[in-house]
Amino acid sequence: MTLDTPPAPHLTDRTRSVGPPHQEPLSDTLPWTGVSVLLAIIGLLLFLAVPERPLSPDELEHQRLSAEVRLAYGRLRGAIEDYRTEHGRVPGTSPDGSIHTERDFRRQLLLHTDGEGHALPQALGSHPFGPYLTGDIPRNPLNGLTDVRIVNGRELSAEVDGRSGWLYDPLADELRLNAPGEWGAYRGQAPRF
User: Fold this and answer.
1) By three-state DSSP, how is residue 120 classified?
2) Under 8 Å CB-to-CB from 70, ≥6 apart: which residues?
3) Domain limits of the chain?
């Protein structure tokens, strides 16, 4: 009796090796060829070497003003926050919630204060807090003024007239640059042109 079945493949295939199956060469499986790597390097070098478009004088002036405004606003806002941390309320207000004058606001940030917010030029045991700013209230870079106008609960944008450096509403704890135009709405971020 003859068998018509072919012999087992492992008995006749002598070219087959033991080990992992055959793999294609690495260069055939990767998507990057030598030319594409070279083009990627050239593109990267061109990206790094091409300078940005120079800024116009107006753009440079806007950047300078933005930096000055951010610095001045940040100093004044930081002083207000420091006062709030130590007194439990914002400057320009008293413990009973009544609103003080601009003079009181200035003194509370520039001088030593007691727990009630009464200010003295020198530190005493009874006035251990502050000062929260050295020198003076930061200058408004757009009009050069340092005074702060207290606006009690009124809409600050309606009060913008450029006649003081800053506008502050102690009830809402809102601080604004007193400047007309786009800068009048400044609350920590410069307007874009």
Assistant:
1) strand
2) 188, 190
3) 57-182
